Amino acid sequence: MKAKVTTIALVLLFLTLGAEAELCKARSRTFKGRCTRNDNCVAVCMTENFTGGYCHGVVERHCMCTKKCGEEPPEEPGEPPEEPRQMMA
């Protein structure tokens, strides 16, 4: 019975290891000041096309932005291209 429980536990462990995507991190380029609240950091990171963020560090706390590795940032809606102007004769 003990061997069955151990086998099941090992199988579940191996299944959960491959289920999580790798998380890429980068320091925020626009966050200003000391990072004290994760929710402020997350809000700034989302403006930088990341999906999350957190405060990192002990003495020098800064905002680290996160997203799944290889994930393309969503395209920002740009201004429509200008229509060609016609010359008046």
UniProtKB/TrEMBL annotation:
Signal found in the keyword field: yes
Record's compositionally biased regions (Acidic residues): 72-81
Disordered: region residues: 69-89
Limits of the Knottins-like domain: 23-69
InterPro entries named in the record: Defensin_plant (IPR008176), Knottins (IPR003614), Scorpion_toxin-like_sf (IPR036574)
Biological processes per GO annotation: defense response
Keywords: Disulfide bond, Signal
Stretch forming the signal peptide: 1-21
PANTHER family recorded: DEFENSIN-LIKE PROTEIN 1, DEFENSIN-LIKE PROTEIN 11
Protein name, entry field: Predicted protein
Organism this protein belongs to: Hordeum vulgare subsp. vulgare (Domesticated barley)
